[in-house]
Amino acid sequence: MLYHDVIIIGSGAAGLAVAIELKKQGIDDILILERENELGGKLNQCIHTGFGIKIFKIDLTGTEYIQKFIIEVNNMGILYYLNTTVLELNRERVITAVNEKGIFEIKAKAIVLAMGCRENPRGANIYTNKCVGIYTVGTVQKFINTQGYMPGKDVVILGSTDIGLITARRMTLEGANVKAVIEPKSYCLGKEINLIECLDFFNIPLKLNHNILDIKGKDRVEGLNIVKVDENMKPIANSQECIYCDTLLLAPNIIPECNILENLGIYISNRSLGPEINENFATNMEGFFACGDIVYLHNTVDDITEDGFKVGKYIAEYLKDNSNIFSDSNIKVYFKDYIKYGVPNYINVRNIEDFIILKFKVNNICTNKYISVYFNDFKELHIKKERMVPAEIESIYIDKKIFYKYNDLNKIIVKLENE
């Protein structure tokens, strides 16, 4: 069995940031496990700009951004295994993995879960003959940006997520005719900046309150029948429309990559579907940390990197016998009323320095709402927000002094109120 102080699963923005910060903190015995044949994660296929504005103060492509960290990891001499898949984890922090050399086990003092997120292809519920020409946007992004293949010429995209919008622009730039982006909901799921830069600038129609009824074609997609839907996603009579195309791209929901955590005992949020964490990104299980998009979908990759740097510092403290990291986090944080999910899920006041940041995402467009924060049943904060959208993470800063007002604080409730 091999032994390392810290093992990081995943080499995207989060994993590399953790490794770099650990090295700066004097922790040398680090191992990164990556199942692909190169470091960098999904950023290796992101050739669009919008990265690095916060960290480097310049606008970079995803590949340029992650390359800076890959170079630093190599210069620091941090060990990593490529083409290595983690098969199993156990509570004793033993990892079973496999690569071209065979199956092996590694034991660590701390494990970082930085596996990111993936597309969830289930739930489309579209009638089809299983014809050629149907892909997810993540697959197509890899085809075009890393392999140089075009999946089709006349394209329709189902789903207005950020990656759906970005793929619509990329397909257009590569010569495809993107006929429409179809969205069953009444609002765009992606960020407003992506809506403007990816659809409006290229005159790509966004059809809200529409869904696909069925797909035409025998061997390959030949067209789609779309229909207007009501707020319950039920088709509206006499609203059917046909769009001729040869390719349908699905932009499904993004979910955390948590498969290997099954039966491990780490608490998984039934709302974010990622691991529950405390203010130091520690899970409920001793020695296990989680950061990046496996916890929740961040606003930007720069935010993921900043979280990774924080986790590196917290793990360094933990390895230097700071027992507070995994001591009882006895304050449970609840996110309710219009809020889809939030973090952290638990708080240990002893770990807070000057303030703590609560982050959450709403489940619908909210206007003129108040963010209310209750300590037990007493309202401590009441902040008005003119507009909140599902594509953006909201943040609340809470001063540590507020916690000292309560001797028996056991819960914090964050919810949205009308007044």
UniProtKB/TrEMBL annotation:
Give residue ranges for domain FAD/NAD(P)-binding: 4-295
Q: What does the record give as EC number?
A: 1.4.1.13
**SUPFAM superfamilies (UniProt xref):** FAD/NAD(P)-binding domain (SSF51905)
Which key words are in the record?
A: Oxidoreductase
Q: Which Pfam families match?
A: Pyr_redox_2
* The name this protein goes by in its record: Glutamate synthase [NADPH] small chain
Give this protein's Gene Ontology molecular function annotations: glutamate synthase (NADPH) activity
Gene3D superfamilies per record: FAD/NAD(P)-binding domain (3.50.50.60)
Report the PANTHER family cross-referenced here: ANAEROBIC GLYCEROL-3-PHOSPHATE DEHYDROGENASE SUBUNIT B
